[in-house]
Each structure stands twice: as C-alpha cells, then as structure tokens.
C-alpha cells in the first residue's frame, strides 16, 4: 500500500519500551475501515525490542512513518509528531491499547459534520494486561461540550487521550503540549482548548483501553495528580481573566512555591488538600512522597474526610507502619473548621 502524500489523518503513537503490547496496537490501526492515514511510530529511545517491531511493520506498510531516536520523553515526542504530521487531523494512540475497527471512520465523520469542534474522543472498553475486562467501573466521558465544561467544574475526567482525534491547527494554535505538565499533559491541553474550541466524546466505545501496574498513570500518580491540580487552577485563573503563570514554564516549581507563583497566600495549602484526597486510593502514591504530602495536609489542619478508611487501605496495600503513622496523625491533628 502506498503512503499518501496528503492523508486525512495522521496517527501519533509514541513508544517507549512497549514491545509487550505494541504489535496488537499497530495491527488495530492498520485494520481500520478508513484507511486514508499515515501512522507516525516514534520510538523514544526504547531499550527493548520496540524499534525492531516498528521497523518490521514499516517494511510491510508504506503508511507507517518510523521515527527512531534517543529518549526525550512523551511530551517532546507528542510535539514532534504534531510538527511532522502531514494531515489536518491528528489521531492519538497509545502503544498498549487496541482501536476498534470503526474508530477513525466514526470520529472523522463527526468532525466533518461539526466544524466547530476541535477535539472528539470516545468511550472506552477497559481491559487488563491479559485483555480481560477491567473490574473497576469507568465513568462515562462527556458527550457534549456543555457536559465537558460541567466535568471541568466538578473535577471529573474529560477525554481519554489515546482515543482523542484533534484538528492539528487548533492544537498548534494553543502551543501544543506544555512541558511543565509531566504525566498530565493531556488534561492541561483539554483545559486550554476548552476556551477556544468545542470538545466532546462520542457515546460509543471505540478503543480497548488497557490498565496494568506498570502504566504511567499508576507509577507516577503523585506527579500526575499534582500537575492536574495545578492545571485546573491555571484554567480557573484564565477563566477569571487573570494571567496564567504556568504558560511559559518548562517545569512546575515545588508545591511549596505555588503561593509565590500564583501571587497570593493559601494556594499551596489548597492544592495540597486537593491532591491529598486524590492520592488516597493509589498504592504507588502511598509508597512514595504522596504519603508525606497526605501527612503534611493533616498537619496543616486539613480535612479528615475519608482518612480512617485510608488507614485500612494502607494495611491492605501492605503498609502497616504507614497505616499506624496515619492513625496517630489523625489523633494528633484536628481539622480546621
């Protein structure tokens, strides 16, 4: 099959040590009912067999454009693929998920019929590492722009990144992905785009979305939730007509410096309270500095809501000493009323 000089869709798939699930992910793209696309497969300095898998598929299908280079991180990879794309529409895809055959056809039809929308996602079929149903229920993603704005206000999920389809011009118009929002670059992008275009997800599932212990959202929960809280605050600043101090940052400052960054007292404490509540369910966060963040929140007189259950959860996570420390902290620190 020849490579289209001007494809309708550029598929952006960044790969880092993804050999375990990479072949099914690539095959699900090549099996799309709408075949007018190029597939950008960027290997971000993998040390496993990912690059060999990419070379093998590229030799079989000219629509695949391999980019093999040293490691620079996901955000740099996403922005590189935005710059390299030949199509006016970008379809995101992760190297561990499986796109359903009608995905591109359904999403491009929606964008063709709705020129006021810059991004369209879809619902997901959640699976585990073995392809079996994921036991935890996932909330339905907003199916209208108005519902998405409500989800922003309520701190709920917006669009599943690996099933997003975006107009390239609109994404470039807001500066692409921002390097400061490590592990939550998609949320920051949706929040910036929500002010300049309409976003929603289709009501039907169009991807099999994989969950497993080693995925980024599991391993880096504390960094991700901290960045997400700051991204939502930056969105609120813009909505209130104030300047966004994160706009030009290459890296977020430490949480204790947020009062200075946003120019008022109480920002750090409010962010810490929000992050602490979001981390209580994460085994990884409770094993790293997310646990210390939670204790700091309590020491500052933060809410005890749900913390007794967190003590029991820490025992379940195999962290009995941390459970004991948390129980003692709850006895010693009274919430501010």
From TrEMBL:
Q: What's the domain of life for this entry?
A: Bacteria
Under the heading InterPro entries, the entry gives: Glyco_trans_2-like, Glycosyltransf_2, Nucleotide-diphossugar_trans
Q: Which UniProt keywords apply?
A: Glycosyltransferase, Transferase
Domain (Glycosyltransferase 2-like) ranges: 10-171
Membrane-traversing stretches: none
Coiled-coil-forming residues are none
In its UniProt record, a GO molecular function of this protein is: glycosyltransferase activity
Query: Family, per the entry?
Result: Belongs to the glycosyltransferase 2 family.
Q: Which PANTHER family match?
A: GLYCOSYLTRANSFERASE (PTHR43685), GLYCOSYLTRANSFERASE EPSE-RELATED (PTHR43685:SF5)
Q: What is this protein called?
A: Glycosyltransferase
- State the organism of origin: Novosphingobium umbonatum
**Lineage, opening ranks:** Bacteria, Pseudomonadati, Pseudomonadota, Alphaproteobacteria, Sphingomonadales
């Amino acid at each position: 099959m020849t490579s289209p000089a001007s494809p309708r869709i550029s598929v952006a798939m960044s790969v880092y040590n993804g050999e375990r699930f990479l072949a099914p992910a690539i095959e699900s793209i090549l099996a799309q009912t709408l075949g007018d696309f190029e597939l950008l497969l960027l290997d971000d300095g993998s040390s496993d067999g990912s690059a060999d898998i990419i070379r093998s598929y590229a030799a079989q299908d000219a629509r695949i454009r391999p980019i093999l280079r040293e490691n620079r991180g996901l955000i740099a990879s996403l922005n590189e693929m935005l710059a390299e794309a030949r199509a006016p529409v970008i379809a995101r895809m992760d190297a561990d998920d499986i796109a359903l055959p009608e995905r591109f056809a359904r999403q491009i039809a929606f964008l063709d019929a709705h020129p006021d929308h810059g991004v369209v996602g879809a619902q997901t079929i959640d699976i585990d590492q073995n392809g079996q149903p994921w036991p935890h229920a996932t909330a339905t993603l907003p199916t209208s722009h108005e519902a998405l704005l409500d989800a922003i206000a309520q701190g709920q999920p917006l669009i599943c990144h690996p099933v997003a389809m975006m107009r390239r011009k609109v994404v470039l118009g807001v500066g692409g992905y921002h390097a400061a929002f490590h592990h939550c670059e998609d949320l920051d992008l949706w929040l910036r785009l929500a002010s300049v275009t309409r976003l929603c997800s289709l009501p039907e599932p169009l991807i099999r979305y994989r969950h497993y212990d080693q995925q980024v959202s599991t391993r880096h929960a504390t960094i991700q939730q901290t960045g997400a809280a700051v991204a939502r605050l930056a969105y609120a600043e813009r909505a209130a007509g104030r300047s966004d101090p994160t706009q030009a940052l290459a890296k977020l400052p430490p949480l204790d410096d947020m009062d200075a960054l946003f120019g008022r007292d109480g920002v750090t404490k409010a962010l810490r309270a929000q992050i602490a509540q979001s981390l209580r369910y994460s085994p990884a966060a409770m094993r790293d500095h997310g646990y210390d963040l939670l204790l700091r929140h309590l020491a500052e007189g933060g809410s005890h809501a749900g913390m007794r259950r967190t003590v029991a959860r820490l025992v379940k996570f195999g962290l009995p000493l941390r459970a004991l420390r948390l129980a003692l902290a709850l006895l010693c620190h009274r919430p501010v009323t």
